[in-house]
């Protein structure tokens, strides 16, 4: 029990010292989200267009399940910048 108590006290003191000595870290949330938004656009928009072409081809051949999934995916992909802007407005400055 003494070992556990000593370990607990040592960890508490270490955490307290780190909180007192270390300064605050200021993360730049806004530019990080803008970078994320640009990366999402660069990657997902070409893939979404290709997927819509394949899904349209599947719809013409009589299989419409993939077409519905492609439309839902396209709505999510093309709305991603607005979704990220909404998160910026909610959680950002």
Overview of this protein structure:
With 93 residues, this protein is mostly helical. The protein has helices at 2-21, 29-60, 65-91. It has one domain (26-91). Helix 2 (29-60) runs antiparallel to helix 3.
Number of strands: 0
Shape: elongated
Give the averaged pLDDT, no decimals.
77
What is the chains' assembly state? single chain
The percentage of residues in β strands lies in under 5%
Helix content: over 70%
- What is the string of helix and strand elements? HHH
Low-confidence stretches: none
What class, by secondary structure content? mainly alpha
Cα separation of the termini: 48 Å
Number of domains: 1
Task: Count helical runs.
Answer: 3
Largest sheet: none
User: What integer value in Å does the Rg equal?
Assistant: 25 Å
What are the salient characteristics of this protein?
93 residues, mainly alpha, 3 helices, 0% strand
Brief summary:
85% of the residues lie in helices and 0% in strands. The chain is mostly helical and 93 residues long.
What is the fold's blueprint, element by element?
Blueprint lengths: L1 H20 L7 H32 L4 H27 L2
Helix pairs in contact: 2-3
């Amino acid at each position: 029990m003494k070992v556990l108590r000593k370990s607990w006290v040592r960890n508490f003191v270490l955490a307290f010292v780190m909180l007192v000595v270390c300064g605050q870290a200021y993360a730049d949330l806004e530019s990080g989200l803008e970078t994320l938004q640009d990366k999402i656009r660069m990657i997902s928009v070409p893939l979404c267009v290709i997927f819509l072409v394949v899904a349209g081809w599947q719809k013409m051949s009589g299989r419409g399940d993939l077409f519905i999934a492609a439309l839902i995916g396209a709505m999510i992909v093309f709305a991603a910048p607005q979704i990220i802007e909404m998160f910026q407005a909610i959680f950002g400055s």
